[in-house]
Amino acid sequence: MDQNSNENTENTADNAGTATAKTGETDNFNPKAVVAIIAGMIVCLILGTAGNAILPEWVVSFFAAAVEISPFVILAILAYASKKYDGLKIITTIWLLLLILGMAFVTFGMGLITVLPADTVAGMTQAANSGVMTEEASMDILKSMEGQIGAIVGLFFGVVIAGLLALTAQIRAVRVWISRYIPIDPDSFVHKTALTVILAIIFIFAVPLIATGQPPLTSPNGITILSDSPAMSEGIMVNVYSLFWMIFGSMLVAGLFVSKTAAQVCERLGLRMPTAKEFALAIGVGVALVIVFHFIDTAISMFCKFAGLTLTDNAAVNKLFSPYLTPFAAILAAISAGFGEEIGVRGLLQERFGILIPTALFAMLHAFQYNWDGVLSVFFAGFIFAILRRHYHTTFTAITHSVYDLILFYMIIYGITI
Fold this sequence. Notes:
Blueprint lengths: L1 H26 L3 H20 L6 H11 L2 H12 L6 H28 L2 H13 L4 H12 L2 H19 L4 H7 L10 H17 L1 H6 L7 H8 L2 H4 L1 H19 L8 H8 L6 H31 L7 H7 L6 H27 L2 H9 L7 H20 L2 H20 L5
Helix pairs in contact: 2-3, 2-4, 3-14, 4-5, 4-10, 4-14, 5-8, 5-10, 6-7, 6-12, 8-10, 10-19, 14-18, 16-20, 16-21, 18-19, 18-21, 19-20, 20-21
């Protein structure tokens, strides 16, 4: 009887502590910041997509760099605000569904780029740029689709199935099962929302590779379209803008202005000033990884050939990265990728979602530019970065990642091979 009483007392204390912690999370809640952030992100979306007529080109490019992260920031802020205002859960869920639908639509469109004839894609691009689609052009597009009906159907059903798979995270039983392996709360609306959108990215972004066997951005049509894109000619500044928005967006998602100070957010993201020893070690690990991945990538290529998978077109990848293949641009690109991706993936997500899910997300974020061999290589690299993040901090992995990318860029620039 005494033992049961003690256990009941401990459980009551645990529940009380949990309730106190949850209350404490909203004690510093700033509703004005929520409104300001959501309004600001909506403005970024508008200016980044429709600001060409009224703003200088560099300003539009700055806001265009925010377009990729703004919908996710809005989702995170709405989900967090729903802790305080329960009625926001409906709005958050609607926004989540729209976001998944948008990702599915964009991914389907990216997949079409890889399968349609080059002249058809050129006509579609011209119509999109001019804002005018003639009846003749529409008929030509429909005729060209007839020969690729199998791939198009595969893309369509692929994104539908991927979206439905992601929505299984809305089922409590699924979250309970997943919570056995990662520290999520199955009853947390915030965790449910975050898990759903992460799975949506992982599953949906894999569809073009599965359905067409080609990564959209480095397919022949993709390279042609990107060659005429302003982002290719403004590669250096686009990296600076992207770095700013990735870091700032991650800090907003982590609670900046809404419930945490800048210092608290940096601690939450694992951003610390490295010691001299850590700095030197991070650089050394980055150099070592270049050598290690020479052998890992060779093994991956052999496996993919054995499995009958098409390997990544390195010449196309080099064209994709061509704006960054100068000594100065390579530095900015490496820092942008290293710090932006480490803060956004390892810093923001790993503490809550463990190693494998963020690593899979990290890999699939590259599925539009690499084939399966490249995606697997990125997965293994992400896994190593995640282990380093667990033993050190995000700043350490960001330095390692940046050094690794910088060496790879310089090897391409100067034609160095191992």
